Structures are given as structure tokens and as C-alpha cells.
Amino acid sequence: MKDPKTVKTRRSYDLDFKQEVTRMLTSGRSAKEISESFGIAENLLYRWKRMATMKTKTKDGQKEDSAAGKLSAENARLRAENERLKTDREILKKALGLFSKSD
């Protein structure tokens, strides 16, 4: 069992700190440099940056207008149509089987 003195606790950062570090990252400073100076993992910096860009896209309403949003909507529409056509085909197969047996 672990000694309670060696158990690591998860650090939490306030929103202002995250925003400042994200600004530093987008302004051109490298993630490695920022992570070494603040003692933060690089993947955490990239996660904060990704979350910040997602929030701004949804606030501005650009996500729905983006090409990726249009493609995902088109993909969902085509999947639904494909399922409907599969169902129709199965119904027609059963109907054809019924008509062929009656002859």
C-alpha cells in the first residue's frame, strides 16, 4: 500500500492562468518552453489550447458554418438515408418472396 505522504494530488489551475498560457502558446512560444518554465505537461497545454479554440468557435457560431460541420451533417443525413433504403430493400425482398410463393 502507498504511503500517504507520497500520494500526488492533482493540481488545479484557474481560468485566467489557462488563458494566459494559451495566449503565450498561440503567440509563438514553444510548448516545451512554456511547460518547462511553469512545470506543466506539454499535452496539458495542447488540451487547454484545443478547448479554448472549441469554445470560441461555438460562441461565434462558426462551427455550424465550417466545412467540417457541413460534412458531418451531410454524413449523418446519408447514413440515415442508407438505413431507410436498407429497410425498404428488406421489405421488398419479403414481398417478392410472398408473391413468388403464391404462384
TrEMBL record:
Highest taxon listed in the record's lineage: Bacteria
Keywords: Coiled coil
Entry's Gene Ontology molecular function annotations: DNA binding; transposase activity
Annotated InterPro entries: Homeodomain-like_sf, Transposase_8
Chain segments annotated as coiled-coil in the UniProt record: 68-95
Protein name listed in UniProt: Transposase
One BP annotation, GO: DNA transposition
tRNA processing among keywords: no
Pfam families: HTH_Tnp_1
